[in-house]
């Protein structure tokens, strides 16, 4: 494994964060700031052809009934469709939405995707905005949409908003959330994935650095800062627009944004995106990458041992947004420095295809 450190400057400073869950192979880091907002400012678009919400369930990580080791998952608390859930982590009630499509065959292990919203977003907003429920309906996987504390994620010291100020451990939250879902549904550990945009993408990389529970990471409009000294091999797909001014494609400090609360502006300073992809290729010991261009979309792809891959998708005319997502309300776009979604590709379809093709190798 090839260690690497991405130094942070400006308003965000980062240090290594070790998950409290035992790590079996390595450490992965993710930092994400802002995400395109489709459910902010009074706009509440419906999910893409998804069934109506089917109730809610509540549980606590410390008090809720956990399945004994080796026990079969109990799906009774997870209705078909979208449901709201609560888990207690570090004496704080954390919330998330869980989408179980009717097409999921619970007679066999099913894939799980964890979708992390950006700053100022919510799990419900991400569920509505990016098309993951429709993709899950078509392909039979489960999707979790966690909520950050006050609409932001702690992705390293200084980032971001209330979670950073209050010392929230979001790596632990996501780790325990995945464990919890595994007691309710037959989740396949070899096909458990994480994706996120902006602040959510930062957390996705942090999870890649600090845990080894995910087979692949899908990072959108984000970067990595801080230390990632011993990352486990993991497949990585990074999608980024060259016109992104919040987390610049060319690296360096981006424009200052609200960090999820408006009271603690942050500026993220990361490496050039191609350099970040190259560092993950080093971690995964990949072959020399190949590059193809189709219109505004350039793909730089490397194959790696054990069936892994690292792919960078560059969109020439895209900014800080989720390609193929729902358009942002004009007021939210203005207030939060959001860019309109690119139509050059559908990020959700692209990420799922990558996830589908890159499960964890046997024993890894």
Automatic annotation (TrEMBL):
Residues 52-84 have a biased composition (Low complexity). Pfam families: Esterase_PHB. GO terms for molecular function: feruloyl esterase activity. GO terms for cellular component: extracellular region. GO terms for biological process: xylan catabolic process. Residues 1-12 have a biased composition (Polar residues). Residues 1-23, 46-86, 243-273 are annotated as: Disordered. It is found in: Secreted. It comes from the Bacteria. Keywords: Carbohydrate metabolism, Hydrolase, Polysaccharide degradation, Secreted, Signal, Xylan degradation. This is Polyhydroxybutyrate depolymerase. It comes from Micromonospora yangpuensis.
